[in-house]
Design brief:
By secondary structure, this protein is of the alpha/beta class. The chain contains nine helices and nine strands. A six-stranded mixed sheet has the order 5-6-7-3-8-9, with helices on both faces. It has a three-stranded antiparallel sheet with strand order 2-1-4, covered by helices on one side. Helix 4 packs across helix 5. The two termini are 29 Å apart. The C terminus is likely disordered.
Length: 247
């Protein structure tokens, strides 16, 4: 197995209070992995550790040959200020930020790439629409178009299917699977276990500590889900009050 990501006794948290503790596992290059676990399990925290926006309290994350500039990250929609006066074409073109900078000029070739990304997610005709006027599904399509332009080897998705309709979900899953076929490493935080079983070959289950990681059918068991709930219930309240033997 060639690892794209190597978690080495990784502990992440806030104000020196651990939210993910002692994570030690590897994610192979080109894998399609779901991160699952109860609310408060540390799933979003783990993605922030991967992007470098949250530094480890202990241990480290090794990205192999990857650099953090080669990571595309889709945050939860609730983290995006949709009142900001941006159009669909504006937010999609942000996927070219590393190429042109904050104030760069798109030019004809890049403008065509932006148009192609918008078309690929079914938003042709919405280019000038303000993002605040979009439905949840339309907004998520625009954000996936931005990911397409980033053309990254590692794609991180935080709850990509929240507030989207079934048609949009199917289209976005098709995009995710195309990235997997291309050999990109894709990691998604998900809550729908049936969706995970159907479309994600590998699963990493968290409950502030690692519960299991491997083939989905071996990790996403009733026994592991029950254990994860127990571990998180023992960790109710601030992360630092969790019992060390909460499993």
């Amino acid at each position: 197995m060639t690892p794209a990501i190597d978690f080495q006794n990784l502990t992440l948290g806030y104000d020196r209070h651990p939210a993910v503790s002692g994570l030690h596992t590897k994610i192979k290059a080109g894998s399609l992995t779901a991160i699952v676990g109860p609310n408060g399990a540390g799933k979003t925290t783990l993605l922030k550790g991967l992007t470098g926006t949250l530094m480890p309290l202990k241990g480290k994350v090794l990205l192999g040959s990857l650099s953090r500039e080669n990571i595309a990250y889709l945050p939860q929609q609730s983290e995006i200020d949709r009142s900001f006066p941006l159009s669909v074409i504006d937010i999609v073109a942000m996927g070219l930020w590393r190429e042109i900078g904050a104030f760069g000029w798109l030019g004809k070739e890049r403008s065509l790439r932006v148009d192609a990304a918008i078309a690929s997610v079914g938003l042709t005709g919405f280019e000038t629409r303000a993002i605040g006027s979009l439905s949840g599904g339309q907004m998520q399509r625009a954000l996936f178009a931005r990911l397409l332009l980033q053309n990254a080897e590692l794609v991180l998705l935080d709850e990509p299917f929240v507030s989207v309709d079934s048609r949009t979900m199917a289209d976005l899953i098709e995009l995710i699977q195309s990235w997997h076929i291309e050999g990109r490493t894709v990691i998604a935080v998900l809550h729908d276990n049936d969706l995970v079983r159907k479309h994600f070959p590998d699963t990493l289950m968290l409950a502030r500590q690692l519960v299991g990681h491997g083939p989905t059918e071996q990790v996403l068991t009733e026994e592991n889900q029950f254990r994860a709930r127990q571990m998180c219930e023992a960790c109710e309240g601030p992360p630092h009050v969790c019992g060390r033997d909460a499993a």
